[in-house]
Amino acid sequence: MIINYFRTFVISLITASTLVTNFVVESLAQINPDTTLPNNSSVRLEGNTSIIEAGTIQGGNLFHSFKEFNIENNNEAFFNNAANIQNIITRVTGQSASSINGVIKANGETNLFLINPNGIIFGENASLQIGGSFIGSTANAIQFGNLGAFSATNPKVPTLLTINPSALLFSQNQASSIESNSVAPSGNNLSKEFTALGLRVPDGKSLLLVGGDVNINNGGLYAFGGRVELGGLASSGTIALKKDGDNFSLSFSDGLNKSDVSLSNNAKVDVRAGNGGGIAINARDLVLTGISEVLAGIVSGGTDNSRAGNIDINAAGTVNIQNSDIVNYTLSNTKAQGGDVNIKTNTLRLEDGGRVIANTHGRGQGGNLKIDATSKVELSGLNTVNGLYISSLVVQSVTKEATGNAGSLTINTPELRVLNGAEISGSTDSAGRGGDLIVNANKIEVIGTSSDDYVNVSQISTQAESTAKGAAGNLIIKTDELLVQNGGEVSASTFGAGTGGNLKIDATSLVELSGQSTVDSRRSGLYVQQNILGATGSAGSMTINTPVLRVFDGALVSASTYGAGTGGDLTVDAGIIEVVGTSSTGYSSSITTQAFSTGAAGDLIIHTDKLLAQNGGFVSASTFSAGTGGNLKMDVTSLVELKGVNSFDSRFASGLFVIQSTEGARGNAGNLTLHTDRLLVQDEATIAARSLGTGTAGNLTISANSINLDKNAVFTADTRSNKTDITQATININSRELILRRASRITTNATGRDVIGGDININTSVFGALENSNITANSASARGGNINIKTQGLFRSLNSAITASGATSEQNGNVNIVTILDPSRGLVEIPINLVDPSGLILARCSPRNSSTPNSFTVTGRSGLPISPEDLLQDVNTIGSWIRSENSHRGKIEQPIQAQIDKTRNQIVEASGLKIDDRGQVYLVASTQNAQSQYLPSQSHFCHN
């Protein structure tokens, strides 16, 4: 028993001794010099501090080389360099990564380089206490111009490396990563607003981390007024290293295979100061998540001559910003200039409240924000968990005290998508001007609203906010295709005293707007607006140039004013314009200028080949209050087709309108002028100039070769205003052909007290009012308007009327109809040698059966001879009656109707008129296929 106990005791002592010995060896091995230098590095331990001395000096460079370089928690590594050393160049030649969880120190303002191809990990307690810049890299070697390299993987003796390092050399297939988790306190920032937590270099110096992959997790990187750069390579290559004063920077040549950079879990890169401060990130993919931040700009202490540095991001793959920010800004009380934010990438994606911002809070100019994405830019959604963060790209002049102008925002990409409440914005809240927003993209989509409790609209916009005195910036979009759907908006607006910006859209293929938000009733649209009651700033103008403009399902194109400021003009130049349908809640698709308060609305000017407004869609210039309504001016080279009514409320027709729309409104409505080749109005569609309040109604002036109104179609000019010092509610029509069918009407109505009816002036070659179609100029309380018709041919069915009625028969207006015959077109010289008519009968026509015998009837210009049993007819009946078996048969209201042999073809009542190329007028049963009715083919009239 005694022997056994003794053996056990000895073994225990030996084990304990071994453990102690191993611990000491391991502790000493944390920083372990190698023997590759002419004058090797030395390390001695004093307490928790490893003092690093000796090494090889070449000029102003001090070289150290280690097998391992690690610093445990609460320990320090102190480079005890001489004061004249400019750069400490440190390499790790062993096979393990450097784990740094303590403090790195150096004397003076020496720059410190640490390269370890196996990787570098900064723990949560890692910190830098050096006087110069810090460059940490997993490169294989540091190049010194053409003098040679200091290599960690091929540790030859350095020779005459006396100049500053010039490049980082990566020869491995996959470079190791750099990771920083440091949250160690490193002192207050310059304005003493917060304590910096993480790796920090002295103000104005540089902090560069160059991997493989670089990952910043819950850590901070600080170089106030200096420079932070992150990046690296995923394979072999060379990264140039440049020095400008106290700042180092990296230069990545084209074609390098870059590695990834990530910031996560409240990670922060911060260079904000009173002057300078730049950030550069070079990566394949850059990912920011978990409320991480990249911050540059001017804070308290900046002078009037100060300027912030830029944030430059170059990513070959994707920049993905999730609930995190990239911001460059200037604070108040300074005239310092803001820095720019430049992002070059394949794809930029902002999600869950991710933001990129360049703004100014002071007197200085804000920085510019520029995005160059070779594939796509996509913004989506917002985040309300930690406050309201909208996924956004923003340039802004912030706070009402600021006077500096915001910078511009430029986006160049093949595809831009703004989804689910995200926004791209240039704005001003101050006396400074808002930033211009310029978008160049092949395809742009602005779709939807957010689905959270706080509903935000997907938008591309410039605006002057309610506190702003400065003007909003302009919004310029150049694209092949612009789609705005489900509540999305593209707008330039003002909410205060500042003037709104202009909106200009140039699309080479299509602009399409459709629908409303599925969350609320916000309509998809294009807007230039003076957007709030009481606002005094005037709205900007809108210009749209595109081959096709489609406004569907309740969408809206609007230039409006809601305050004292004037509304902007809206100009559309398009090949085809379609304004069709209603939204799911009944909003009509529309293109409009509007005044809702005391400010005057702008004009609406349209140039197009073809305009279609159907199923409730309309085009209008309106006023709803004291402001004057705008004019509607339209030049349409081919066709205007108006059809149908709003499917939710039939009171709202498709059409063209200049309207003063409410009973209490005092503003005068504008005029409507239309020039086109063909105008088709049908199925209750309407063209109207109307005043429902005390303001005067506008006038309608329509010029067209062919005008057809069918199925309750309406031209109307209505007024309640009793102003007689201005011409109002007048309809002027100039055409070659004007046909009204099936209860269509042209009317002026005066419904107010002592209000004189408007006039109707028609100048047309051919005029027909058929099938209960009417022309009226009425007044309910005063003299009716006058109707003046000048035509070469007038046809009116028995149930159609032309009336000008007043409050009493003595107050009826005048109806003046003048028929003008042009001798040069109406008279034909008869040839001397008459032709035998029998020779003109087609011999190949087969005889009809006995029930339908052939016949040939010669008539004069006044139609068929009058039968003794016929009613007396007007001697001016139009001649050249034409039969057509394809026409609808009309009822012949004559006493001998019952005696007509039913087996014979009946004469069909005419329902239309046509003019041939010689200017002659022909009454026809149908306007379709008119040429075949006048010059019938054999197959049409010959029957077997």
Automatic annotation (TrEMBL):
Q: Which SUPFAM superfamilies match?
A: Pectin lyase-like
* InterPro entries per record: FhaB/CdiA-like_TPS, Pectin_lyas_fold, Pectin_lyase_fold/virulence
- What Gene3D superfamilies is this protein classified in? Single-stranded right-handed beta-helix, Pectin lyase-like (2.160.20.10)
Q: Which residues constitute the signal peptide according to the record?
A: none
What superkingdom does the record give?
A: Bacteria
Domain named Filamentous haemagglutinin FhaB/tRNA nuclease CdiA-like TPS: which ranges?
33-145
Record SMART domains: Haemagg_act (SM00912)
Q: Which Pfam families match?
A: TPS (PF05860)
What is this protein's record name?
Filamentous haemagglutinin FhaB/tRNA nuclease CdiA-like TPS domain-containing protein
Q: Which species is this record about?
A: Dulcicalothrix desertica PCC 7102
Upper taxonomic lineage = Bacteria, Bacillati, Cyanobacteriota, Cyanophyceae, Nostocales
